[in-house]
What we know:
This protein is α/β, with parallel strands linked by helices. The relative contact order is 0.13. It is built from 22 helices and 27 strands. It is about 40% helix and about 20% strand. It is elongated, with a radius of gyration of 32 Å. Helix 19 packs antiparallel against helix 20 and helix 21 packs antiparallel against helix 22. The structure holds one RNA strand.
Amino acid sequence: MAELPKHYNPQETEDATYARWEESGYFNPDNLVKDGIADKDAEAFSIVLPPPNVTGTLHMGHAAMLAIEDTLVRYHRMRGKRTLWVPGTDHAAIATQTKVEKELYKKEGSTRHDLGREEFVKRVEAFAQESHDTIVNQVRKMGSSVDWSREAYTLDEARNVAVRTAFKKMYDDGLIYRGRRIVNWDPRMQTTISDDEIEWREERTNFYYLRYGPFTIATARPETKFGDKYVVMHPDDKRYKEYQSGQKLTLEWINGPVEATVIKDEAIDMELGTGVMTITPWHDATDFDIAERHNLDAEQIIDENGKLLSIAGELAGMHIKKARPLIVEKLKEKGLLERVDENYIHRIATNSRGGELIEPQIKQQWFVDVNKKFTLPTSNLKDIADGAEVTLKKVMQMAVKSGQIEILPDRFEKIYFHWIDNLRDWNISRQLWYGHRIPVYYCTRGNSEARSSNFETGCQKPIVSIEELNECPNCKGPLEQDPDTLDTWFSSGLWTFSTLGWPEQTADLDVYHPTNLLETGYDILFFWVARMILMSGYLLGDIPFSTVYLHGLVRDEAGRKMSKSLDNIIDPLTLIEKYGADATRLSLIIGAAPGSDVKLSEDKVRGYKNFTNKLWNISRFLLMNMEDYDPGAAVSFSKDDRAILDEFEKLAEEITKDIEAYRLYLAAEKLYHYAWHTFADTILEASKPVLQDEAARAARQHVLATTWKNTLKLLHPFVPFVTEELWRTMPGDKRDLLMVETWPHQPHA
RNA sequence: GGGCGCUUAGCUCAGUUGGUUAGAGCGCAGCAUUCACAUUGCUGAGGUCACAGGUUCGAAUCCUGUAGCGCCCACCA
């Protein structure tokens, strides 16, 4: 038996250990079955890796995610289950495209339009590939036991088929429609974004009270007011009962007299200001809704670059930022400005990916209708019968309300329901070039404005196709594909089953779907988790996973978010190099209850590095006292021997319970305490004289060897590298790899 | 405006359905040096469990209120 070095040096062994795991093939459950490690009809345990964005490198949040998921996966694998963890990456359309556009502008001074669509997409693909390789390397460094043979990308060929299939089915069921609606337009990125991608900020601005005929109206955005020709008040407002709905008034406005129409609508807050407002349906969501209800005209004031249109008269062509003070000046001159409130707090919408101001615009876009009824032919959803008529909203609600999906911590279930209650139709089209192109074609024969026509008859209808089309299937005429791409979450929503082969009815889909667990950050509960429930519910009539485990954010030691501007980012790879992957993993698991943020400091990681060294030295001590150990010899245990074995049994039971209940932080802490302060400080110290005693030595050797081996098993999911390395040195019966050893406690036995 | 959460030792956090003197890690103080490990061991100091009421034989734990911090949602023009 070789003697171990005095200290544990993770750098020397981690990569080789990972290579041994990978070469064994046991990350792939098919091999577990083939080699008899898992029974061929053993229970399955499957999770998908939330695919990291190919926008660069992994951060501490990813490291936390990998640590938690790998711990659970390794536990279930040791429990003898057919365990599958599917890896992959996400094309993250808007984030990736923005990143490449920025670099392009910085390095070459050119825009995507200078390159053209095809060339630009090539550049993005090259960047994505590079990021992908970096990410894959980092995933390995963390020790993640993912099945690389099943790796997927949200934008690869197989996923494209899934996306087009899903789109077509939804379109055919009337759940996807194209419509002119008010959307969130980012003038800088030149694309729309969904409601969820908006980040609201508060800003102190001037609030202008303007004379509008006999009324006073108020606005923070006078530059939108040129075209206002509807004046709206609440139907119950007694102050304005002399005005009738539909009544016309001629009054003096910014660029001369206008004919205004009185509208009565209950959306108006009588308490607020004067209780009267004018509306700008083209550039405000509330106003748009009012206009829709009363069938009013909408006029565009601001163009897609944020500049005023001809309606602004002499200010046409000017950017709204510049124009505002000039408009105010003009209003003042005309005597239309009554007063200004200078301390008004205005909420402004910005793009959460890039921070640019959002300018609402009316645009032709594709939407998913979340309130439209459809029939679910077959349903595995609890409380929804085969053939039931439901809506997407209802599917999302029922999956959680019925208890079929459990969200941890459970307070997020409330947040989830609240979000669904407020959910509006999902804008899925993006004016980006990187992403799944919308699988819709327009026949352009005799129809030069194909995309803006209303598609009533024949081949003037849009053609939705799973296969790529080159000519119109009706008239063989030329086709034009919709230039837009899909919201990245449309493809991510399919992730649990698109990675398993859907739309093919594969064996993987049969065995591993629904997945058991979805572990991700709480910040993407709506973006992703909800969309997966929607897609799986609709396309499969099933849940995508039965448990959702939401981890918190990894913050710096002062509790601040890690960000470039604060320069407080800790790179997981740096930590791994300095302290080892095991110490890094433990520091992200201990003290991290689901849903709560973790504060990370290097001190914490250093502490766990010491712990891995302690484990090393426990083994070292044991080996030094095992030269004459005969694992097969019959021994009789003393009372103390039995006490050690009993105590371990209790520990194993507790750890198992904690892991089953997703209390990883508790399990890890208990193991830490047991290994260090019970096994090393108490049991080993007490064993030193016992090992000197000829009569008691053999039994104690046996107790220490078996207990320590079992402790390594319990520890393995948390600190896989050091335990795997130590496993090689342990005497007695064992499998080659600790990774596929049997868990030392069977629950429900 | 609506909703949710947090507040326990200097710091980071446990405390699983209310039950004996409230725990851990880090940090701090003292002691120990060729013992598996100084990346160590032993000992110790340190808490009116945010505050005020209430329920109970018994409350860090349940209820009500207050304060501070944080998060989510929302069409106050």
